[in-house]
Amino acid sequence: MPYRFVSAQFGHETNTFVAAPTRLDDFRLAAPDEQFGSPASIVAARRGTRTIHGGFIDAAATHGVSLTPLLATFAQPGGVVEAAAYRHIMALLLDRLRGSGACAAVLLDLHGAMVADDLEDAEGDVIAAVRALVGADTPIIVTLDSHANVTGAMAEAADVIVGFDEYPHIDMYERGVEAVDIAVAIAAGEVVPTLAFQQVPLLTMPPMQYTKRDPMLSLLRRAWDIEAEPGVVNATLSVGFPYADIRDAGVSVSVTTDGDAPLAAGKARELAQAFWDARDEFDVNLTPVSDVIDHVQQHATGLVVLADGSDNPGGGGPADGTVILRELVARDVQGATVAAIADPQSARAAASAGVGATVTLDVGGKTDDRHGAPLRVTGYVRLVSDGRFEMQGPMGRGSVENYGVTVVLVVGGVEIVLTERRRQPYDAELLRSVGIEPSRRRLIALKSAVHFRQTYHDIAHRIFDADTPGVHRPKFDAYKYANLRPGVYPVSPVVPDPGFSSPEPA
């Protein structure tokens, strides 16, 4: 008889410095259907995609496992999740789990940095609630984003934590496959999962979390070496999400072995020490927008990408900041593109005017006063789109993205991609879907911190991290932490050596 697994996706990356809450409708926008997914709709939406559930589905088929997805939703990163939204989705998940019958394993596709009203550790609550329903003997395998703020409660309730290795997250599919492989081995009695978890008193910012360069490249290779050792099932590095002012924000490591607790604990401490030793290598270098424009105007060859990470919607930014746009327009930079400014009012007005029309709009700056004021521009509408396209990059390939009403507005030498919905423009297919070939532009400003590198790395001559304000600014002096535990570097000026390299007490 084949094994039967159940799965569920319930995710959010919560930026507690964002004032606007995340509501139930935000999760509905990200669900396969109005009921947050049925098994059939989830499989239809995820099969053939490079996502966690895409990996679950294919690996289950490979192993001959019956997979029943119970629920799927992942709201766009933003402010704290309203309690009513969290309770509603949790009730759906638990009701469906109760009604699904016995299973050989539970696969939870979570993020790891969700914060709800009065609940700092939402994923810890999710995993514990599932554990209470399925009992101690049913394995729970949890996949987490590498930006997870992993807690002791999460590690205690899960049997195995499988975190993304790569940032950009180009390995989601592989981690989904790995989770199913491990679940099958546990169900067959071939592996007895033994998990060790270790927090590191360290916060890091996104640009230096990029895994194709040091310090993360060396740390990741070390984790892979450990994972290849006999008896080790999985080694996960979690860089954490520093825009969550909660007790347990920050770096952590998780190591799972086959029944060998001392090995798991020792390898977790080894990885934690490696992270701690590299702590001073995570400082971020930001470049003023004017300097980047100077560079573009003085060098005639090659595409320059300017990452506006401070307004990254992938970390809670409103994506309507105007600081870069204002300077590009003021200096009439030729061959420049800004993508994508989420401004429903302007996008709809330009679309209503129609292709070829000349319009005057107050663009952006409508969400708050932290990302630049609205900018009045006059330009012509070159293209109107429904904002739908299939992603082609390694991150999420095959998934259909939807920006809503999308307009290309041309102001002098600057193209502005205006969208109805707030989305991170990490796949170059967004621009290609609206008639813009990125390799033929001189400067592209993207509201993204790191994910854009998956499709722009090979076509960009230079990449700069912009020195701009915002709720996702990669500098610690922009935030005041009230709930973070004491002694976390570099927020705390003096941090004692955590002693990961010290021998375990007898």
CATH names the topology of the largest domain as Rossmann fold
Strand order of the largest sheet: 11-12-15-16-10-17-9-18
Helix content: 25-40%
CATH architecture of the largest domain: 3-Layer(aba) Sandwich
Total strands: 18
Tally of helical segments: 14
Provide the CATH superfamily of the largest domain. Answer: Response regulator
Strand content: 15-25%
Computed over alpha carbons, the radius of gyration is 23 Å
Broad CATH class of the largest domain: Alpha Beta
Output mean pLDDT.
97
- Number of separate structural domains: 2
Query: Could you give a short account of the major beta sheet?
Result: 8 strands, mixed
Shape: globular
Which spans of ≥5 residues are poorly predicted at pLDDT below 50?
none
Going by helix content, strand content and strand pairing, the class is alpha/beta
Terminus-to-terminus distance: 46 Å
Overview of the structural elements:
Strands 11-12-15-16-10-17-9-18 form an eight-stranded mixed sheet, with helices on one face. Strands 2-1-3-4-5 form a five-stranded parallel sheet, with helices on both faces. Strands 6-8-7 form a three-stranded antiparallel sheet. The longest helix is centred in the first third of the chain and has 17 residues. It contains 14 helices and 18 strands. Strand 3, helix 5 and strand 4 form a beta-alpha-beta unit. It has two domains: 212 residues, Response regulator (Rossmann fold, 3-Layer(aba) Sandwich), CATH 3.40.50; 185 residues, no CATH class. Helix 3 packs parallel to helix 7 and helix 8 runs antiparallel to helix 9. The radius of gyration is 23 Å and the shape is globular. With 506 residues, the chain is an alpha/beta fold.
